[in-house]
Amino acid sequence: MTLHDDAVRVLKDWTAPDAPDGAQEQLRLDYLDHLVSHRDGLWRSCLPAHLTASAVVVDPVQGRVLLTLHPKVGRWLQMGGHCEPEDGTLAAAALREATEESGIPGLRLLGDGGGGPIPVRLDRHRVRCTGRGRPENVHLDVQYVALAPAGAEASISEESLDLRWFGYGALPELTDRSVRELVALARRTTG
């Protein structure tokens, strides 16, 4: 199975969280349409949009979340980024990114209790990942929750300006609505 096939399977099987506006279901359908139209729809080179994978790292025992201060965006975000050829699945891409950017070995993606990791949310946002002076493009982000092992200590990577744990109720000012919604969902999901 290719990464493209896995992404189609994940999005076909995923049940969007109930929301009065149906926004998550519409994103799911939009992502699937993108993949049908673009066999290269998971790669950075696919413009004007491509899928990405991310994971919010949480420590539910301590009631905290690990966020990275992104150098290009200037905001506190979850770990994540572009899919790579060695990623066999979207979940593997999210876990790789979370591990690389957090420096925490032994992260585990939240699953459904039997079938492996499942996304918790989708987010579409405009970015400038192709370089300065280039037009903006769109990330179609598939978001997971990563559970940190007990006593996890983060280690900043070259991809971050800063890396810190925050209490669920004490997120920094420089977080956007998407990150706040993802953290709230992770908190509800992990108890």
Automatic annotation (TrEMBL):
InterPro entries, per database record = NUDIX_hydrolase-like_dom_sf (IPR015797), NUDIX_hydrolase_dom (IPR000086)
Which part of the chain is the Nudix hydrolase domain? Answer: 48-188
PROSITE patterns from the xrefs?
NUDIX
Designated name of the protein? NUDIX domain-containing protein
Organism per entry: Peterkaempfera bronchialis
